[in-house]
Amino acid sequence: MAQDGHKDHPKYMNIFWWLLGLTIVEVAVAIPEYSIVLKAILLIGLACSKAALVAIYFMHLKFERKTMAIIVITPFIICVFLVIMLMPDITLDTRLDSLVQPAAEVVDTSSH
Amino acid sequence: MEHATTLDHTEDVYEPSLTPDSLGKLGMWVFLVGDTMSFGALLAAYAAVRAGAGAIGWAPPDAILGINLTAFMTFLLICSSVTMVKALESIQNGNVSRMCLFLGLTIAGGVIFLGLQAYEWYHLIHHGLTLTGIPDHGSYGALKDQAINGSNLFGPTFYAITGFHGLHVTGGVIYLVVILIHGLRGRYTAEFNHEVEIVGLYWHFVDLIWIMVFTFIYLL
After folding, report:
1. Chain B contact present for A60, CB below 8 A
2. How far apart are CA B66 and CA A47, in angstroms?
3. Domains of chain B with bracketed CATH
4. What is the pLDDT of residues A7-40, one digit of tens each?
5. Could you say which of A47, B14, B83, B191 is the most buried, measured as most Cβ atoms within 10 Å of its Cβ?
6. Facing residue for B194 by CB, picked from A2, A65, A67
7. ipTM of this complex > 0.95?
8. How many helices and strands in chain B, by DSSP H and E?
9. Nearest Cα to A82, choosing from B67, B47, B101, B13?
10. What pTM was computed for the model?
């Protein structure tokens, strides 16, 4: 397994230039001021492309058994659920304000 | 991917059996999967805290952190990933001294990265970015009001995430030094080199995580 396939590995320098190019694009995309949503989509897309290049070529996932790739993809899928599960923490913020308001008044009256 | 599977036994039509080499790799991958969850949890928590603070409740990272320095640090880690694959390629071709040279360059990349991170932390702490607050003087002053209106967790999240990554780099440098010492003593050959490949997996993972940290903490 370690030996088969290393003759058809790509030229590592090509991957290096891709990573370097994508990093420069990332910084260029990040500097100007515009919609944060568009910026986030662009930057996360670029970062995921770079991460995929590293995993597929430098970490030889392309040349591994398929099971290994399935194991590797799992945490990334779970991380998406992690973000979804944390969504209430973000959106609950405004609802908490409305809950806290009457509670604060109760505290005020009881102190008199 | 299917055509790469060279089959010794006809009954095993899908994948070749695990060998001591691939067991080691599987072990490292399983560790890295767990580590991905650690970083995933940290980054997801960061996203939640930041989004909860609102658009003006979080200081813009590029106003406090140095993008140029960290872009260079990203470049450095990418370079050290290339020297790492070159080290593995060298030993697969049986060239021990070339492997040791490239392992040495990889270690140098890691050490310089850590040095720059220490410099960055020193600079930020000196300017008042600590676990309990953000700078309230000089050019950072205006950012304090912004942070007070939202979340004061800029410092803690920054240090927790970059610190956790820095610890991984430190561990990786120690790991690489151990492999280099083995290499210098002639442990690895063209036939026996899976330990070099496994340290490579760890090192590329540290690079991969930095790509994510750089994007989420510094650029966004």
Report:
1. yes
2. 19
3. 71-220 (1.20.120.80)
4. 456 688 888 888 889 988 988 888 888 887 888 8
5. A47
6. A2
7. no
8. 7, 0
9. B47
10. 0.81
